[in-house]
Predict the structure.
Amino acid sequence: MNKITDVKMLGLLIYEARKAQGLTQEQLAATCGVGIRFLRELEHGKETCHLGKSLQVVQMLGIEIFLKQRGELS
């Protein structure tokens, strides 16, 4: 399980998942209903990317995100 500590790490995870699935940015953007520019910015870790759209992309790639409080056991 990857620990995401910043937007750049999330962007890298999204980039790697997209590549592993053989998708272009254009294909993924069209499938998720987001713009190519948004997807590029998300993959590059732009901190002001819209959370709702980011979650759409993550879900489409089959990535699950879990939250836990610090100190909580996994």
